[in-house]
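Let us practice reading a record.
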Amino acid sequence: MSKPNEFYIGVIELFAVLVPGSIAVAILAPLLAELSLPSAVEYPRNDFAQWAAFVIGAYAAGHIVFFFASFMDDFADALRDRIQRSVTADEARERQLTALKRLIVDRHVGNWRAHDCASQICSSFLRDARANGVKLYQWARATLMLKLPAAADDVQRIEADAKLFRSLVVVFLLASIVFCKEHRLAAALGAFILVVPCAFRYYERRMKGATQAFIYIITLDSLGELKAKEND
């Protein structure tokens, strides 16, 4: 029987790699058909072999999409930090924030507070974490895997959602380019529009996953579980 961690790793691979890869292969199929591949490659003739080839191709394409999409993480973290600095610099933010800015702040304030508390806890266990190349979220996730696997599973479920929508951003950008090349302007516009909600959903899920991981760390520390287990 597979362990929960193995199950959720499979879920992440399914939703963040295989699903976006399948969409990418389906979009690129017309372009590949125009190349001279049919004369150089003998395609499988039976249905099972064709499905196997499609799955393998989707898995490979998904990993390529996953690689390019991973660069969005640094941008998302930089955006979060920039929003936090801009709000902190506002001396009268409680009275002068606009409705839109207040909505943005309300969605970030929980993450900021949890991040700061978890950062202090991390510093008590690991000195100069950033200097050693250890990011706070990575430390929190690794700690949860060792100390409380059920909490790590919960965080990984949210992480799977974030990685899915992160990859879909790249896939829909690719789709808009392909559809433009095929002079399908309506489809290209539709694919490009879908980039926006996918990007927002990715950012929201990434923030949610990090916040949830930090809250679990704070809870474990407040209960004395981290120090108790650390001394064992």
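A brief commentary: The chain has ten helices and no strands.
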